Amino acid sequence: MTAARCRSAGWSVAVVDHLPFGGTCQLRGCDPKKVLVGAADAIDHSRRMRGKGIGGGEPIIAWDELIQFKRTFTDPVPAMKE
């Protein structure tokens, strides 16, 4: 890596990235996807189990609540990584 070679030569190095600090997986990749896909899977499974021992009202996704839940573990990531 160029930055490592420059640093070992005694130079000061700064790495600038235009993306939010914290990383793809935590902020917009793996973890957020698991929450959103998990909710969709739960709705799908519930619907497919109708008449097979699962009853009640029609399941729905409360989008605002789901996003709020997702943010409880994605928002703190940059501060923890910093």
Question: How would you describe this protein?
Answer:
The chain contains five helices and no strands. It is mainly α and 82 residues long. The radius of gyration is 21 Å and the shape is rod-shaped. Helix 3 runs antiparallel to helix 4. Helix content is 59%, strand content 0%.
What topology does this entry show?
Elements: H1 2-8, H2 24-28, H3 30-48, H4 63-74, H5 77-81
Find the count of extended strands (DSSP E, 2+ residues). Answer: 0
Assembly type of the shown chains? single chain
**Helix and strand composition category:** mainly alpha
Distance between the termini: 22 Å
Low-confidence residue ranges:
none
- Determine the strand fraction and express it as a percent band: under 5%
Task: Give a quick account of the main beta sheet: strands, pairing sense, barrel closure.
Answer: none
Name the overall outline. Answer: rod-shaped
Measured as a percent range, the helix fraction is 55-70%
> What's the SSE pattern?
HHHHH
Number of helices: 5
CA-atom Rg in angstroms: 21 Å
Mean pLDDT: 82
Give the structure's gist in a few sentences.
This protein has 82 residues and is mainly α. It is built from 5 helices and no strands.
